[in-house]
């Protein structure tokens, strides 16, 4: 007697992504606008670092970095964000790597702008 036939398993359904304005704005912030804001603030910090103590510009720079982190987290957690190349869905591991890289680079760039200006 032949074995019973195997049940036919349908192929996995294609995943449809929801595109939303909020998710797109979060992605634009952490990938483009946030980094541009941080770059502009770094230039202003560098320009004024020799004359002024740590102040509003430094706080704005830290806030921009924090907003980049928050935007990336929200995009991954609630809007099914993609990785930076757009090839796959991002994971919290991707967020952790982004957070470490952003914090190290942002702190290093801030220190260079703040204290490098005094050397010139």
Topology:
Blueprint: H1 21-48, H2 56-79, H3 92-119
Helix pairs in contact: 1-2, 1-3, 2-3
What's a concise summary of this model?
The chain has about 120 residues and is mainly α. It has helices spanning about 20-50, 55-80, 90-120. The longest helix is centred in the first third of the chain and has 28 residues, at about 20-50.
Structural account:
By secondary structure, the protein is mainly α. The chain has one domain. 67% of the residues lie in helices and 0% in strands. The chain contains three helices and no strands. It has helices spanning 21-48, 56-79, 92-119. The longest helix has 28 residues, at 21-48. It starts with 20 loop residues before the first helix and ends with a helix. The model has no long low-confidence stretch (mean pLDDT 87).
User: How many distinct beta strands?
Assistant: 0
The radius of gyration over CA amounts to 22 Å
Average pLDDT reading = 87
Find the structural class using helix and strand composition.
mainly alpha
> What sequence of helices (H) and strands (E) makes up the elements?
HHH
Distance between the termini: 90 Å
Number of helices: 3
Q: Major sheet, described briefly?
A: none
